[in-house]
Amino acid sequence: MLLEEDPSTLIRHTISNFNIAPDRTAVSRISESLSTLQQARDLRLREAESSLKKLSRTLNTLSSQHNELVSTHSSAAHASEISRLDTQKFRVAKSASDLEMETERLQTQLAELNARLQELEMQGVDGGDATNGVGGGGVEDEVLLRLKVYRSLGIEIERDSKDGDFNRVVVRNDRKGDVHVVNIDRKFSRFFYANYFWQNL
């Protein structure tokens, strides 16, 4: 009875029983992945070839410059230049050492000031506990406290007489005897102004 059925019907039933659709989908995905991978490899190969050509041109240019320098080399001028560079190197090293010491001093000072600020914020403006409201803290007291801390650092913040916003800052550096007046512009971030103030303290 089975052999009397139409062969096409038998083939369709056989195919449906094997359920090859997931395998076909997987093969299609693999083919797409292989194609994408091949394209990416071709692109990287072209980029590598382009970089190699650029490096070759650069090498040829540097080789020509090197040959020219070698042909025009002067021992006396070279020794003089070496001596000048050594002197400059020692000056730069001393400046770097001084800057490193100054940076460490400022970092120590900053840590002390941050600790003092934290202590003052915990105590409140009048010496009470800021967390439980002793000393009549509030937003205005917090602002006054911050202004006092800034003033102790040499930073004075002035309000605008029209709208009451802080729009002008005077930064004093008593150690250098410098005074910088900065008009606050909203288009610059707080991070920008913070870095600028610390650099001038």
TrEMBL record:
GO terms for molecular function: microtubule binding. Keywords: Cell cycle, Cell division, Centromere, Chromosome, Coiled coil, Kinetochore, Mitosis, Nucleus. Residues 96-123 form a coiled coil. InterPro entries: Ndc80_Spc24, Spc24_Fungi_globular_sf. One of its GO terms (cellular component) is Ndc80 complex. It comes from the Eukaryota. Gene3D superfamilies: 3.30.160.430. The keyword Iron-sulfur does not apply. Pfam families: Spc24. CDD domains: RWD_Spc24. It is found in: Cytoplasm, Cytoskeleton, Microtubule organizing center; Nucleus; Chromosome, Centromere, Kinetochore. The keyword Cell division applies. GO terms for biological process: cell division; chromosome segregation. Signal peptide: none annotated. Belongs to the SPC24 family. Acts as a component of the essential kinetochore-associated NDC80 complex, which is required for chromosome segregation and spindle checkpoint activity. Component of the NDC80 complex. This is Kinetochore protein Spc24. It comes from Podospora australis.
